[in-house]
Design goal:
Elements: H1 3-73, E1 79-86, E2 94-98, E3 101-105, E4 109-113, E5 119-124, E6 130-135, E7 138-143, E8 148-153, E9 156-162, E10 167-172, E11 178-183, E12 187-193, E13 199-207, E14 213-219, E15 225-234, E16 237-246, H2 249-252, E17 257-261, E18 270-274, E19 280-285, E20 288-293, E21 301-307, E22 311-317, E23 321-327, E24 335-341, E25 346-352, E26 358-362, E27 365-369, E28 373-378, E29 383-388, E30 395-398, E31 404-408, E32 412-418
Antiparallel strand pairs: 1-32, 2-3, 3-4, 4-5, 6-7, 7-8, 8-9, 10-11, 11-12, 12-13, 14-15, 15-16, 16-17, 18-19, 19-20, 20-21, 22-23, 23-24, 24-25, 26-27, 27-28, 28-29, 30-31, 31-32
């Protein structure tokens, strides 16, 4: 091999070495270029995924609106029976919406029937004039003008209480705390009970000649507050007063009286008072509805009122709504339904011509019914169903969906699906 050839080989080696040394920089440049191109592709891919998700979200929203229309706004023309079970009423029977369906009570006992028509539990007793009050998953059944009351929840009876004085009315909270209005010839007393029926060392005395006669009471969901409506004589005239008591630490500094309203009821009578939830209270009068805020437990305030000139035929409420049905001046539609939220905001008004005997709000339905037919509105004001149900009706509740109704009669209970 010649020296020239060796020199050429050495020169080529050095050139190759320089190329190898420069390769990492070149590779980095190539990688950066590739990364730039890959980033563009990544952005395109992400944009494609985003568009897919956006389309899915739009479709989901459309389906949601469609479902809302189907469940709440659509008018149904027919129905089919999902299930039915025989029941025996026997004697005078009362029903209250309770749990997923109803609490049934008679002079001989009470029972809880769930949304599938199954009797979850039964309790026997003897009462001459039973009445029931339900609040959430708790209920109290008392013998009016008698001396016995039972406190229960959806799992069964929790306790029983006996009184010396006759019971005028009973109420219960969503924690199972119960109260009864007792009276003698000179005064009335609101007595409180634990859920097991034991007496709480707490009572409110009202002298009939001064404080007045209690028309109605209700307990707040936690049992700490009580709203009471009293009729009393003032200057030779009968006047109404609505008061609020608070028995928590908050009300101690004010001797438990955290609200008293006289002028607001000067020209009317509040025959029904309720706590629909923990921060609102309602007083139904013969002139309309008074809406209270109990958000400040130390100072309950009147926040809104609805006054009407027509005769109020019926009042009803739920945890979210308060409603009244008025007798109009006549014509094609002799009734008008007015529904409000519990803060006083109006939801809708609807005139109708249906000879109802009872009305209930059950979930998303306002249900009016008589012995053989019903008229159902959504809580948005749309007519859902109007017609006969092919059976005698004593109680109706919304079923397990927005299109089903549980109908109770003297001999049978059915769940029907509107279609």
């Amino acid at each position: 091999m010649s020296d020239m050839s060796s020199m050429n080989r050495e020169r080529k080696k050095r050139e190759l070495k320089r190329q190898m040394i420069s390769t990492p920089g070149q590779a980095q440049a190539i990688q950066e270029e590739a990364a730039a191109g890959g980033g563009m592709g990544g952005r395109k891919k992400k944009k494609h995924i985003f568009l897919k998700l956006l389309i899915l979200a739009v479709l989901a929203a459309g389906l949601g609106l469609g479902a809302r229309y189907y469940f709440l706004e659509r008018q149904f023309m027919d129905y089919r029976v999902v299930w039915e079970v025989p029941i025996e009423e026997g004697g005078t029977v009362g029903y209250e919406s309770f749990g997923t369906n109803v609490l049934k009570y008679t002079k001989d006992g009470m029972s809880y029937i769930d949304s599938q028509g199954k009797t979850v539990w039964m309790q026997s007793y003897e009462m001459k004039n039973p009445s029931a009050c339900v609040n959430g998953d708790y209920a109290v059944v008392a013998d009016r003008q008698g001396n016995t009351l039972f406190i229960c929840d959806v799992n069964g009876v929790l306790g029983q209480a006996s009184t010396v004085l006759p019971i005028i009315k009973a109420a219960v909270s969503q924690t199972g705390i119960a109260a009864s209005v007792l009276e003698d010839s000179a005064a009335s007393y609101i007595q409180y009970y634990n859920r097991d029926g034991s007496s709480i060392d707490l009572s409110i005395k009202a002298v009939l000649s001064g404080d007045g006669y209690p028309l109605d009471i209700a307990l707040s969901p936690d049992g700490n507050q009580t709203i009471a409506s009293y009729m009393r004589v003032d200057g030779g005239e009968l006047k109404n007063r609505v008061v609020f008591y608070d028995f928590s630490e908050i009300g101690k500094n004010q001797k438990h009286l955290v609200g008293g309203f006289d002028d607001e009821f000067a020209e009317t009578i509040a025959a029904r008072v309720v706590y629909p939830d923990s921060t609102h209270a309602l007083a139904f009068t013969d002139r309309g509805i008074r809406f209270f805020s109990a958000k400040n437990q130390a100072a309950v305030e009147l926040t809104a009122q609805v006054d009407v000139d027509e005769t109020i035929e019926t009042v009803f409420y739920s945890e979210e709504y308060a409603g009244i049905i008025l007798r109009t001046s006549g014509g094609e539609n002799p009734y008008r339904l007015q529904l409000y939220r519990v803060n006083g905001d109006e939801v809708f008004q609807q005139e109708f011509n249906f000879q109802y005997k009872q009305v209930d709000i059950s979930e998303d339905m306002v249900i009016l019914y008589n012995e053989e037919a019903c008229l159902i509105y959504s809580t948005g004001g749309s007519l859902k169903y109007s017609g006969r149900l092919g059976m005698e009706i004593t109680k109706m509740n919304q079923g397990r969906s927005g299109t089903s109704v549980i109908v109770t009669g003297p001999q049978v209970m059915k769940e029907i699906r509107l279609q």
